[in-house]
Design brief:
Catalase (chains A, B, C, D, E, F); Ferritin; mainly alpha; homohexamer; Mn_catalase (chains A, B, C, D, E, F); Ferritin-like (chains A, B, C, D, E, F); Mn_catalase_dom (chains A, B, C, D, E, F)
Chain lengths: ~270, ~270, ~270, ~270, ~270, ~270
């Protein structure tokens, strides 16, 4: 069960409202790199977690923290929209800079939300829950979580670089810090379970006889006019310790020509296909 | 530029067509764990790749291989739909088992595609390209790719476990093998760039002064009635080697109560809000 | 069956074309507050209406009127796009104001529709039919309709406030008026059926023994650091006349800790979860 | 900021797991009538609330309760999936009843989530955040909330009617009760602000001179072959107390024939259109 | 402006209700081959039509007819759902055939719509308006319309083939007939404008100097291991009468290797990319 | 199976980078008129092709070419984003023209992709695979392909008209040329199969007794106040040679009034509907 306390997790201050930055901040709320995504992803992973109870608690606790991040960002968006014009006649709308409400800003902040945050990204596209990755496999989920936090910290860094508002920079430096930790937190779960080598290949419960292992350790170069790129992926021991990496240059197809033959009568095809 | 050769990458055989399994296989084509996703993800990452050219080649080469996986799965779906009923009157439709065309199978295989594959998942939901993660940050992208291949191999293993068709099992054992390699391939890129520690926190180009580092290394326990779960994430050196992990039990909010005050006249609010 | 007459329901005039306002008007066509939504919502409600035939007629008649609103708005968008630049070289594109075609305007009005209306909102996001709420319960549907018309009139008021075009203001004053009526029309249906008290709780056909009525009339305060807000919702008779409102401060969970135990072999989990 | 306690808000018990019922329950999680929708809707309304602080607290407190409803439903889904087959060969898969995993159940519970809940509806379609209605107008939002809770209680009643599992019936009777209250809670906010008449038309801040009030109080009958349906909506005082209802039979269009003339050169039209 | 008459365009009769067929019929309402699509596509094309007024009238008139098709299909769906079980305990739900409500049928017909039609396809996926193709180019639109009616008639034929209900077969034979006409209607518009040759290439207003015409009339064979398929497309005069068809076997790339160089500082990349 | 060669199909040059044009070009990548659509559409049609093998080869070969078009456009987008500002403080961001990054440009090129292409359209809306039309009927598919290439060439012409960059104009003249050919290529398939008349009505395999042919050749005028528009569609022989065109002025409904009667107990309706 959830509870709420009335203060924000961290102070949110905007020195000079900027409706364009309100639009950019939306990416951190409703973008695929954003906070709705991680809050809901960890929540659904927690609800489906099997095995070590500590992982379930980690997931639920962090989901709960991410809800607080949505809350701070929602407030940051509203503060950046303070004073945005609601009429073409307003002085502010004539100012070529603040005019920005209709150039580079989200018109739906004016039309649809009454100058507050929405669950959409920086293009105004609503977040959709197909981005909640929760497989029931703890290692796959941890990798998905690291990926989410990595793109989240890339985004927060880009927002930090963009703005010159001191309040926003302070707030973003907090989000950057938490994304640093959460990247490491999920990687640390893998460490805690025995380390990367033990967790590979994911799922490590697939019996080796279900796998055509002769195809498991080579890089396939499908480039016709270039040598296979060489690197750690093409030589040395594999990361699961089971084999050695190699590569295949200019591969030949091994399968058949896929032909389906004629269409069946009654299947809606043209007569010429029957 | 791309080219095509007429044979499949690996043989695809179906011993006993099963329209229900055709539906399940769709997840591997048009699901978020599927092959359209990885093909397009690696393709867009390649088109935006900056820095080491070998990574660009790796991405484009593997994108190209994944297109061949879509092709094999598309054929596998069509083969599983051979003989599926197109009329309620057909003997097959009366058979309580094959009747399955309308129970557990995708009715649009009958209605929309003429008994062949579609770019949809196992619920018939079309794939959408918001799932193509390509950030321009090579480490973030590699993590996203590992996550995609991990969920892909989880899916392929579940499909393998479900079916008892020998042709399909053989084909899936090949996909499982390639997913094994591709997980390792993307992890090996991180190794090749100096290893995990060097790549963290992602992006490692964010100057430390942009980060409120006092918030970067602790687990925040938002659980009211439980101790913080302890593990590798709450103690020992951080994975980037910069600090040590710790945890905060029962955190206090540090920010303000977020209040927005009254609505502006002309903003479409109720009079009571002005 | 439907019919069409060639004139618009109400005159639509644009004194000074404005491609930015064309973009804003799209919200009234393809937004969730817009006319496609209400036209289709009333149409599907009408097709599923059971009980009093007058309600079915009301729904179908109003669906038909809303189609005429789409038609007027579509014309208003096209008129606002008259003279928008189709080339960067055009004088109009160099003018920092009309330049707006690429700042605050919808580039797809240029690229995709040939300077006419599209079934998208003010962000260019296409309307999707998941927003057609039609439950088969007449009271639930009426509430959904009031909500739709309320947000519709909020939107029309914001559009009216924004523009200084006299033609557009006249047209919008008509839409505002019809939204006034339609709000009341759907509320009047509830009156006609015996009033709000009789219709609650929706659905009023659910037998009281299907309901844990000890949980039906209190406000649950999940705020840790604030008293429950007091008001009409926390005291006095309930609006269905069956009980009295109260509130619960600082609620305790009543349920169990939800644990799922170990994963099943063959379910694609990591070995550590089995 | 949010917090979590480890127990569920109300006990969740499943006497006989049923993968089909797991699929049906998904509608209450990820459907438009479901709990993600109300949790997020109240959360975003709270973040944008202006005016009376009590309303903001009501919204945030109830958003927090709805998160706990998602949590209970997520557990209910997982419990209903206990023992669902993961292989065609399992005894359970051969049983014509439990076989249901592939007929009437969600194959992605098997393939994608590892037998746990997903943020999708009963068709497996992911929830998308365009359904979060938050206009910044308190009366419009309250109507949207009543509508959401009305459809939510209709859904919970239908789920109650469907199942014969005593545990599930007990759990659903709790959800039905809370939906009863939440319907009334939002209606009570309107009472608290002065009653329905005072809040109409929404937004009540739109000056009457922005409205073509001669069109604000009649029902327009667009039915060619039927008399206008008569009722509370066509006679008597209007619900805002400003006028009287009437109706118009067989309306004539008042506007012009909308013609756009020729296409512009360079606009991508056919020569015949120029 | 639109009007409605109370009777259906054509009689709709269901002899034996079948909830599975209700699900299949949904494809003709809310599928990409369905009636919402053509109604709205012709409506938006009409609103943007420039040039010959007769085409505008054709489009609007046919849009209006298609609305009547939605209405008939909506009734057909509801009739097929008559008597579908609303409770697991009902006799009908125990019958292994009618049980179908949860296998091959749409559970949301039960849960969400109260046993009536929804604006979704046969997988329960809502129609979205991105499928409304209206380019402002009359020839492009006519081709899109022919394509829509072709897939519509394929679908209606498949539905006809599936069902053995005489009422439904009669109704579908009417839809098949109208689709026959509408295919020809749109092709006849091209004839009316001077025939196919005159309309090509679409748009025929593009000046020939905007086109690298040396690339306009050959088939490019990208198949590595097969000869170019020969046919009308590889020899003989081109269909616009301007040139002759040919083909290129084994094409060489003509462009450069696309490289982007290093990432910019401050762009969120890894240090290794700078 | 697919292969890749490292050079682009045609040279791509940008003389003066323009982030706004990068946004416009996205329509040609991820728009419904774009290259992902045709690449995937031809690919899925090829995988489901039945009958003449040459058609399958045509489809697969052209799908492969279209992948190369995505690749060129992706490079064109990245080149147009060279030098776009990543910080508000940059000189370029202060320049009222380049400032355009936040007005008329895609903020996610900055925030999400690291200044490279994304699989989205010019509004930033991701492409979704529901636009892949592949019916299994070769004539329906060819019409859909002609429509796709027609809208594609309209789009390329509009992009050509917009830009004044010589490199981009040269590149677009190549795309325009290939779209010219592909329109004709798919029409030539119909010629090859015996010509348009033979292919109609699509599907031509539907037996005439499945069709209410008395409704197959008339235009239905639903316009109340206008004569039916006259043209090739209302007189002369039908295009399939089976009949003659005519028209119906002011049609009468032939069907019944659709009424559903009362709701069932237990179906979630209001008592008043039972």
């Amino acid at each position: 069960m959830f509870h709420h306390s009335s203060k924000l997790q961290y102070p949110v201050r905007v020195d000079k409202p900027d409706p364009q930055f309100a639009m950019l901040l939306q990416q951190a709320i409703g973008g695929v790199e954003g906070e709705i995504r991680v809050a809901m992803q960890y929540f659904f992973q927690a609800m489906g977690a099997r095995g070590d109870d500590r992982i379930r608690d980690l997931l639920m606790s962090t989901a709960t923290e991410e809800l607080a991040h949505i809350e701070m960002l929602g407030h940051a968006v509203a503060l950046n929209l303070e004073g945005a014009p609601v009429s073409y006649q307003e002085e502010s709308a004539k100012d070529p800079v603040i005019n920005a409400i209709l150039g580079g800003a989200n018109p739906r902040h004016l039309l649809s939300s009454g100058l507050s945050a929405m669950p959409v990204n920086a293009n105004g596209v609503p977040f959709d829950m197909s981005h909640i990755y929760a497989t029931g496999n703890i290692a796959a989920d941890m990798q998905a979580n690291v990926a989410a936090e990595a793109s989240g910290r890339v985004l927060a860094s880009r927002l930090y670089n963009w703005t010159d508002d001191k309040g926003m920079k302070d707030f973003l430096s907090f989000l950057i810090a938490r994304d640093t930790y959460h990247q490491q937190q999920w990687l640390a779960v893998i460490e805690d379970m025995g380390g990367l080598q033990a967790s590979l290949p994911i799922p490590n419960s697939t019996p080796q006889e279900h796998e055509a292992t002769e195809h498991s350790y080579y890089f396939l170069n499908t480039l016709l006019d270039k040598e296979a790129p060489q690197g750690r992926w093409s030589e040395g021991p594999s990361l699961d310790g089971r084999s050695n990496f190699s590569f295949k240059q200019q591969p030949e197809p091994q399968g058949q020509v896929p032909t389906l033959g004629k269409a069946r009568p009654g299947s809606g095809a043209q007569k010429e296909q029957l």
